[in-house]
């Protein structure tokens, strides 16, 4: 493990943090601001990843496409596809109260995963889609990693700015009001059903984009990658740990949790071989443990929801 | 302005509102009284569109609004408050008011990205109005507190404040005085009177505080067991033996 190896590892980690930060931002729109308990992040992640893969790969007679389009088209397509999938799901499921929505969305994500796994014509079944072009992928290995990190970072910053603006605008205020008290928001003339659908679709589009960035980074996508453990629950911990209702918290949470998650893998790999395989499953326990600790000791997250509106001027003491 | 025609509301086998009819004239302050469980709040929920009646019709400003949802009624000028304050607890008091005005340009995702200056100028205007309202309600000092941290009485005032952030025609107040101390109560009465006289709001008021009813309301409608027992001015209603019976369960004694 020399310097080069370490740098490479850091780059790898940074790219993943950016991708997860996008997912956490998407979830923050849905949960942190609209109060929608979406436990089906993996589903939208998968739709985005596969859409972009199909749009950008070279022609393959065994399945639909590929269409060999530019990666930007693929990424926009991924967002649109995730949004389109979210629309009917939201239309049906957003009538449920939070915990029922969680159950419904978990189920839908599993349906999406199983369809992808067993459907050869569209997604190439269990073998997945390989040789997805990576932007700036044909230069040297290290340069390519750096270039990809730069691209992902730009996407993340753009998404952060766009989302943050919405939250400080009347749209965000309205969404938070709906989250805090649905009945009163209705009585104040807000079309709650429509607005929730809007937030659900907006969040899903970001999740789809996250999926696309992941697929292009890995250069391939298989059904194994859309395991709900890493694609849904890890994101939830990131958001809760970082602070739901706070976009910077979502990004910070993604960084902290991913570093713990990723370093724990190195730790388990160092164990003697006979334990190393079993120890991998201990990491799943780690997810639950982290969630419990955060909820017990800091339920509002590392960076709690800020007071918004016209209050950049007020002192922090004003909030309790 | 508002006509209720034979409204019936069933909850399973329980009939909460049972053929209730009355009219509310524009510019009036109508008091709605009656013992607990008379169906007053259910009636409010029906008028405000939070519940759909089992049968009967509601007409507002000459239009049949029986099947409209509460957010649609709001846009027609019908605003309500809640018996238990329904504040947006994580929003500041100021934001609680600022979210009210209908059709703000900043409520559209696209204008926030593409016509920010329009959003900002509308926002300045809404903010000014919200500060004015807070001033009127003497809540300026808590403008930047989370609404969930306000006292019960302040939350009540904030509820009233929300009705002032839009061009309301008819305001439904559900027990504005409950849990509010005497001094604040007198203040509240004055505010309601000012809103009625100066801004031309029509009010329907559910209240158990008879002093407040006497001071503000004409006519007074008394409900019992889901229907209108009697309506008229305060003295008529007060001295009616049926009202005494409904409140006290017997024909002697002093109502209120």
Automatic annotation (TrEMBL), chain A:
<feature type="transmembrane region" description="Helical">
    <location>
        <begin position="146"/>
        <end position="163"/>
    </location>
</feature>
<feature type="transmembrane region" description="Helical">
    <location>
        <begin position="6"/>
        <end position="29"/>
    </location>
</feature>
<feature type="transmembrane region" description="Helical">
    <location>
        <begin position="99"/>
        <end position="116"/>
    </location>
</feature>
<protein>
    <submittedName>
        <fullName>Branched-chain amino acid ABC transporter permease</fullName>
    </submittedName>
</protein>
<feature type="transmembrane region" description="Helical">
    <location>
        <begin position="199"/>
        <end position="219"/>
    </location>
</feature>
<feature type="transmembrane region" description="Helical">
    <location>
        <begin position="69"/>
        <end position="87"/>
    </location>
</feature>
<feature type="transmembrane region" description="Helical">
    <location>
        <begin position="36"/>
        <end position="57"/>
    </location>
</feature>
<dbReference type="InterPro" id="IPR001851">
    <property type="entry name" value="ABC_transp_permease"/>
</dbReference>
<keyword id="KW-1133">Transmembrane helix</keyword>
<keyword id="KW-0472">Membrane</keyword>
<keyword id="KW-1003">Cell membrane</keyword>
<dbReference type="Pfam" id="PF02653">
    <property type="entry name" value="BPD_transp_2"/>
</dbReference>
<dbReference type="InterPro" id="IPR043428">
    <property type="entry name" value="LivM-like"/>
</dbReference>
<feature type="transmembrane region" description="Helical">
    <location>
        <begin position="225"/>
        <end position="242"/>
    </location>
</feature>
<keyword id="KW-0812">Transmembrane</keyword>
Automatic annotation (TrEMBL), chain B:
<dbReference type="InterPro" id="IPR051120">
    <property type="entry name" value="ABC_AA/LPS_Transport"/>
</dbReference>
<dbReference type="InterPro" id="IPR003593">
    <property type="entry name" value="AAA+_ATPase"/>
</dbReference>
<keyword id="KW-0813">Transport</keyword>
<dbReference type="InterPro" id="IPR032823">
    <property type="entry name" value="BCA_ABC_TP_C"/>
</dbReference>
<dbReference type="Pfam" id="PF00005">
    <property type="entry name" value="ABC_tran"/>
</dbReference>
<dbReference type="InterPro" id="IPR027417">
    <property type="entry name" value="P-loop_NTPase"/>
</dbReference>
<dbReference type="GO" id="GO:0005524">
    <property type="term" value="F:ATP binding"/>
</dbReference>
<feature type="domain" description="ABC transporter">
    <location>
        <begin position="2"/>
        <end position="250"/>
    </location>
</feature>
<dbReference type="InterPro" id="IPR003439">
    <property type="entry name" value="ABC_transporter-like_ATP-bd"/>
</dbReference>
<keyword id="KW-0547">Nucleotide-binding</keyword>
<dbReference type="Pfam" id="PF12399">
    <property type="entry name" value="BCA_ABC_TP_C"/>
</dbReference>
<keyword id="KW-0067">ATP-binding</keyword>
<comment type="similarity">
    <text>Belongs to the ABC transporter superfamily.</text>
</comment>
<dbReference type="InterPro" id="IPR017871">
    <property type="entry name" value="ABC_transporter-like_CS"/>
</dbReference>
<protein>
    <submittedName>
        <fullName>ABC transporter ATP-binding protein</fullName>
    </submittedName>
</protein>
């Amino acid at each position: 493990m020399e310097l080069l190896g370490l740098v490479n590892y850091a780059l790898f980690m940074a790219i993943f943090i950016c991708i997860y930060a996008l997912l956490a931002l998407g979830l923050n729109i849905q949960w942190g601001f609209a109060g929608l308990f979406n436990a089906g992040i993996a589903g939208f992640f998968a739709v985005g990843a596969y859409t972009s893969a199909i749009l950008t790969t070279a022609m393959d007679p065994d399945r639909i496409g590929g269409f060999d389009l530019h990666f930007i088209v693929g990424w926009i397509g991924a967002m649109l596809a995730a949004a389109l999938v979210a629309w009917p799901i939201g239309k049906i499921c957003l009538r449920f109260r939070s915990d029922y929505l969680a159950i419904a969305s978990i189920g839908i994500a599993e349906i999406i995963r199983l369809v992808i796994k067993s459907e050869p014509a569209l997604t190439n079944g269990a073998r997945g889609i390989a040789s997805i072009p990576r932007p700036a992928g044909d230069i040297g290995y290290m340069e390519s990693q750096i270039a990809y990190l730069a691209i992902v970072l730009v996407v993340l910053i753009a998404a952060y700015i766009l989302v943050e603006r919405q939250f400080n605008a009347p749209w965000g205020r309205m969404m938070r009001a709906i989250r805090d008290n649905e009945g009163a928001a209705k009585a104040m003339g807000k079309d709650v059903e429509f607005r929730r659908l809007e937030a659900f679709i907006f969040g899903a589009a970001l999740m789809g984009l996250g999926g696309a960035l992941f697929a292009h980074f890995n250069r391939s996508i298989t059904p194994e990658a859309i395991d709900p453990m890493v694609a849904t629950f890890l994101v939830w911990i990131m958001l809760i740990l970082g602070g739901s209702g706070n976009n910077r918290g979502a990004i910070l949470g993604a960084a902290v949790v991913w570093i713990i998650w990723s370093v724990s893998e190195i730790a388990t790999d160092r164990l003697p071989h006979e334990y190393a395989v079993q120890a991998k499953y201990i990491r799943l326990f780690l997810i639950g443990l982290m969630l419990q600790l955060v909820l017990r000791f800091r339920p509002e997250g590392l960076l709690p929801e800020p007071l918004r509106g016209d209050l950049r001027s007020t002192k922090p003491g004003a909030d309790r | 302005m508002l006509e209720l025609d034979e409204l019936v509301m069933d909850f399973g086998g329980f009939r909460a509102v049972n053929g209730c009819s009355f009219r509310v004239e524009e510019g009036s302050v109508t008091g709605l009284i009656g013992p607990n469980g008379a169906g007053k709040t259910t009636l409010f929920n029906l008028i405000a569109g939070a519940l759909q009646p089992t049968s009967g019709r509601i007409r507002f400003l000459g239009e049949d609004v029986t099947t409209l949802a509460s957010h649609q009624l709001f846009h027609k000028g019908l605003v309500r408050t809640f018996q238990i304050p329904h504040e947006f607890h994580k929003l500041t008091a100021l934001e609680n008011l600022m979210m009210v005005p209908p059709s703000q340009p900043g409520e559209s995702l696209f204008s926030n990205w593409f016509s920010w200056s329009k959003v900002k100028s509308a926002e300045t205007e809404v903010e000014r109005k919200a500060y004015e309202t807070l001033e009127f309600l003497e809540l300026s000092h808590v403008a930047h507190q989370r609404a969930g941290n306000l006292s019960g009485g302040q939350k009540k005032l904030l509820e009233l404040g929300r009705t002032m952030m839009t061009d309301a025609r008819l305001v439904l107040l559900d027990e504005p005085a409950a849990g509010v101390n005497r001094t604040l109560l007198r203040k509240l009465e004055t505010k309601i009177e000012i809103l009625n006289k100066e801004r031309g709001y029509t009010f329907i008021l559910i209240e158990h505080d008879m002093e407040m009813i006497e001071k503000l309301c004409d006519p007074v409608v008394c409900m019992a067991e889901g229907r209108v027992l009697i309506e008229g001015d305060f003295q008529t209603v007060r001295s009616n033996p049926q009202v005494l019976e409904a409140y006290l369960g017997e024909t002697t004694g002093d109502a209120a």
